[in-house]
From TrEMBL:
Organism, scientific name: Cicer arietinum
Membrane-crossing residue ranges in chain numbering: 12-32, 38-57, 69-87, 93-111
Designated name of the protein: Vesicle transport protein GOT1-like
Subcellular locations according to the entry: Golgi apparatus membrane
Designated gene of the protein: LOC101500824
Main localization (coarse): Golgi
Length: 140
């Protein structure tokens, strides 16, 4: 049996990633509050960096196949900071989807094991969406 040990750095990284998602959610709920969205982005990126390591993070974001997503995410963040949060979030969302689209197979397996969501994901229409990306490798 393989044991996945969580050291303190990874625990802090997962916490920062979770807080980043939470702050981003709050920023959207509070009518695209620029401060909350920026804080969410900073916490999310720093959490990912701590979770997978700085070298792996740099390799992931600087990979040639992820270049379009990295640039979109960065430009969206700059647009958000400049004062146009809705446009910034649209550009960031596109970059996020391009960057993390390789994680859909892992996410679909995880969602199928959750009691209520597993039943929803097993429905034919939703399952066809997840099956489209099955078999691809996780990018990290």
């Amino acid at each position: 049996m393989v044991s996945f040990e969580m050291n303190d750095r990874k625990k802090i990284g997962l916490g920062l990633t979770g807080f980043g998602i939470f702050f981003s959610f709050l920023g959207v709920v509070f009518f695209f509050d620029k401060g909350l969205l920026a804080m969410g982005n900073i916490l999310f990126v720093s959490g990912v960096s701590l979770t997978i390591g700085l070298k792996s993070t740099m390799q992931f974001f600087m990979k040639r196949t992820n270049f379009k997503g990295t640039v979109s995410f960065g430009i969206g963040f700059l647009i958000l900071i400049m004062g146009w949060p809705i446009l910034g979030m649209i550009v960031e969302s596109y970059g996020f989807l391009v960057l993390f689209s390789g994680f859909w197979p892992t996410l679909s397996v995880f969602l199928q094991k959750i009691p209520v969501l597993g039943w929803i994901v097993q429905q034919p229409y939703i399952r066809s969406l997840f099956d489209r990306y099955r078999g691809r490798r996780v990018p990290v």
